[in-house]
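Board work, copied verbatim: Peroxisomal biogenesis factor 11 alpha
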Amino acid sequence: MVGESPGDVSGYSAPWFSPSRCKTHHDARNHPGCRRMKSAFILSFMRATQYTCMLLSYLIENKADKKKLVMKLKQLESSMSSGRKMFRLGNMVHAFVAARRTAALPEMVPCLCLTASHLSRALYFVCDAVLWLRSVGLQPHIDRPKWHTWATKCYYCSLLMNLARDWYEISWRLEQAALEEKTKEKFFSQKDGEELNGVKSDGLHSFLHQLVQVLKRNPPLLLDLVKNLCDLSGPLDTLGIYKTSRGVIGFCGLLSSLVGILTLASPHLKLKQ
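↓ predict structure ↓
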């Protein structure tokens, strides 16, 4: 796809913690790109900690001798959630900038999906900032349930747009794989062609095989798909679309956070936009 990966904004290919990423800067700590990378990594670790606490508290909450530990885990989970809100205050600006950038993409589907995703995420950050103001006591009269629902809807919309973009990528690659297969048939003998046709006639099995191969050859696409699917568990539960447990939400959130940390540490695994 055409465009710049948000996970590699500064243009470097080395991991975020590598000194070579900022070797061209006189003071790497003060460079905006490096500060954003460091902030993103801190946020990812805080998110991973939050969902780890949620998962652990769910697993041990029914044990009588673990009540104090469960309480401490829930307090840490709440602290991580509040801390993330504070760190995310400036993210709405970055989301609007990203929306402006993706609006210039030449392909219509990625352009629409990514721009809508970034705009929805920007609105989510606005709602998130309002909730933070209430949590620190600056605006105690804010209707928390209403703003929380709006934030969740914006986040849910952003995830759906991301998944639509992922499916577009998968469909395009499946189409390319089918064209390659047809091209190969022209150079094979009649016997080889019959074998290929036999594989294609399996229908669902053939589709799943091609899908697995496409995702296997494109780790960034696979990781992005896994992350977006995992992130859906929270909004689906909050909005009442598909109710689940804190354990499932905690596990999915932790897995999503680990994928996020991986793509930050290795920008080449971030799906380009």
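Residues 65 and 71 are 12 Å apart (CA to CA).
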